[in-house]
Amino acid sequence: MKKNNIILVAFNLVFLWNCNTQNFYKKAQNGDIVFVEAKKENLSGAISRVTKTNENTTSYDHTALVEVRGKKKNILHSSGENGSERISLKTFIKKNRKEKRRIDLYRLKDTYKNCTDKAIQKANTMLGKPYNWLYILNENAYYCSDFVERAYRDCHIFELKPMTFINPNTKTTDEYWIEFYQSKNTKVPEGKLGCNPNGISKSDKIYKVFSLK
Predict the structure, then answer these.
(1) For 27, what's the count of Cα atoms within 13 Å in the CB-facing half-sphere?
(2) Whole-angstrom Cα distance, residue 6 to residue 3?
(3) Partners of 78 in beta bridges
(4) Residue 193 vs residues 56, 60, 189: alpha-carbon distances, Å
(5) DSSP, residue by residue, the chain
(6) Are 200 and 51 in contact (CB under 8 A)?
(7) How far apart are the C-alpha atoms of 64 and 32, rounded to whole Å?
(8) Per-residue pLDDT of the chain (213 residues; tens, 9 = 90+)
(9) Which residues have C-beta within 8 Å of that of residue 171, sequence separation ≥ 6?
(10) Neighbour-count burial of 37, counting CB atoms closer than 10 A to its CB (0-12 exposed, 13-18 middle, 19+ buried)
(11) Degrees (nearest 5) of the Cα angle 207, 49, 41?
């Protein structure tokens, strides 16, 4: 009996997992913004430590745009692996679910919905550019939140703000970032304009539609 109960619970969990994934896919619309939960270690953890604003909220380390082409749904984004690219939404979900990372789906408020098509058109012109590993804005390479901010820049959906690499716990520059920029023979760009996933998720022009936990 216990064995049957375990099998039933496992079946229900798989069913719920698949239903949530399908719901996320169905809800995604053209121009929606996706945010991926940060990890606690390495680059992901370093991004989270210096950009998270509230301990009670999910911290993000990646963001991307949803593109709908006919019956197919894609992700347009800039990733450390392949730079600015288009991949299928299903592939994107599968990768992040495998890593057990939460994915949140956000959408522009109705007032700004007329911006979505133009933003996707802009994003398509940025595909093929390399990833910006210095996180210093330029026209030849993009990082993830930079990619999303630029796509929606004409509508002023997101803001560029002075970046900080200071760990709020130590009140000094985070050790990871010190070593990171030393390896690139570059000074930590403290105070330079930029953006990050946590920052742009706070825009008052977007709202959360669905969470895939």
Answers:
(1) 18
(2) 5
(3) 84
(4) 26, 19, 9
(5) -HHHHHHHHHHHHHHHHHHHHHHHHHH--TT-EEEEE--SSHHHHHHHHHH---TTS--EEEEEEEEEETTEEEEEEEETTTEEEEEEHHHHHHHHHHTT--EEEEEE-GGGGGGHHHHHHHHHHTTTPPB-TT----SS-B-HHHHHHHHTGGGT-S--EE---EETTTTEE-HHHHHHHHTTT----TT-EE--HHHHHT-TTEEEEEEE-
(6) no
(7) 8
(8) 455 555 444 444 444 457 888 899 999 999 999 999 999 999 999 999 999 988 778 999 999 999 999 989 999 999 999 999 999 999 999 999 889 999 999 999 999 999 999 999 999 999 999 999 999 999 999 999 999 999 999 999 999 999 999 999 999 999 999 999 999 999 999 999 999 999 999 999 999 999 998
(9) none
(10) buried
(11) 105
The DSSP bridge pattern shows strands 83-88 and 193-194 to be unpaired
Tokens of 203: 């825009």
pLDDT confidence of residue 213: 85
How many residues does this entry show for the chain? 213
Supply 50's token pair: 């210096």
